[in-house]
Write a structure and sequence with these properties.
Elements: H1 8-11, H2 14-23, E1 37-41, H3 46-57, E2 61-66, H4 69-82, E3 86-91, H5 97-104, E4 114-117, H6 135-156, E5 161-165, H7 177-180, E6 185-186, E7 189-190, H8 192-214, E8 219-223, H9 231-236, H10 238-244, H11 251-263, H12 268-273, E9 276-278, E10 281-282, H13 295-308
Parallel strand pairs: 1-2, 1-4, 2-3, 4-5, 5-8, 8-9
Antiparallel strand pairs: 6-7, 9-10
Helix pairs in contact: 3-4, 3-11, 5-6, 6-8
Length: 323
């Protein structure tokens, strides 16, 4: 590890990305992705938009899951002009599990090479999904799980990769399954930042469990993008953005790790490893030792996700059993 990586702000920021890019080895993102089909959620802005653009410029066939129909249509035109082979749209809120199941049933059976679970939000006020769950829990965990299960036949047809876009904010969190359904309370008030970070910790756990359950037929990874200059950061963390703005990564830099994980020739060792990645390298999940959960906590969390997502009778029912 570079000494500068011991200073989070010199690792997660733009300087860290530039330093890490200079040391990169191994296969790069392919110049052409012709013939590959990739699904991206949350593609209309920020990191998701950069991911979709990077895939489109290389000629990939895209499926985009978006909430806003008008923005999705504009994005489709933009990506086709950039070089995408085709762009299919699914309009659904990932927090609405009924809508996710309905839209997934309409996507056909074309094999998928990768799924990028990128959609996210950081609300400052408590909100709930149509099924009654706190919204970050629904959008970051339950919806993606329902979507992944619905897509499994298409994923297995190509030994696909499932990549979860998590956050370095998860590093500060010890998993607390009991608070996820309703969100984190701090001094009797909803804490959107901690609720976000809790669900991001949960994504890391879910990705690991999916990998153990589905590999080698399907590989699952989590990746964090560093500190990126996005609309969500500007609106939800204005103080942080004012302090760090000049040093934040661009959306393209934040998207690089997920784009690479989902498309590059990783090799058997990396595919077998799964795990969490940052700037094209595997990284530890618990730099703060007190955040490491016990086996019972992991099982309780995964079983809760299975039950809340309504997966008890399907192929992901055994997630908790792989811990």
């Amino acid at each position: 590890m570079d000494l500068e990586d011991l200073l989070v702000w010199r690792s997660f920021d733009r300087r860290g990305y530039e330093r890490h890019a200079r040391r990169a080895t191994g296969a790069d993102v392919p110049v052409s992705l012709a013939g590959r089909r990739v699904l991206v959620t949350g593609a209309t802005q920020g990191i998701g938009h950069a991911l979709a653009q990077g895939l489109a410029r290389r000629g990939a066939d895209l499926e985009l899951w978006c909430r806003d129909p008008a923005r999705a249509e504009r994005l489709r035109d933009e990506l086709l002009a950039a070089g995408a082979a085709a762009v299919g749209l699914c309009i659904a809120d990932l927090g609405d599990l009924d809508a996710v199941r309905r839209e997934a049933s309409r996507t056909g059976d074309a094999p998928l090479d990768a799924v990028l679970h990128n959609a996210g939000l950081l609300p400052l006020e408590r909100a709930r999904t149509p099924q009654g769950f706190e919204v970050t829990y629904g959008v970051h965990l339950l919806g993606p799980l329902v979507l992944t299960e619905a897509l499994l036949p298409r994923l297995r047809a190509r030994a696909a990769r499932v990549v979860w876009m998590t956050s370095g904010g998860a590093y500060t969190q010890r998993l607390h399954p009991g608070v996820l359904r309703d969100g984190v309370e701090t001094r009797d008030r909803y804490d959107g930042v901690r609720s976000y970070a809790q669900t991001k910790r949960g994504q890391i756990v879910v990705a690991d469990a999916l990998h153990r359950l589905l590999a080698p037929g399907v590989s699952a990874f989590s990746v964090h993008p560093g500190w990126v200059d996005t609309r969500a950061v500007r609106e939800s963390l204005p103080g942080f953005h004012r302090r760090m703005g000049p040093h934040l990564r661009t959306p393209e830099q934040g998207a690089d790790g997920a784009l690479w994980l989902s498309t590059a020739a990783l090799g058997e060792q990396a595919l077998a490893r799964g795990g969490m990645w940052f700037d094209r390298r595997p990284v530890g999940q618990h730099p703060l030792p007190w955040t490491r959960p016990g086996r019972r906590t992991l099982q309780a969390f995964l079983q809760q996700c299975v039950e809340d997502a309504g997966l008890g009778a399907g192929p992901l029912a055994g997630l908790a059993g792989v811990v």
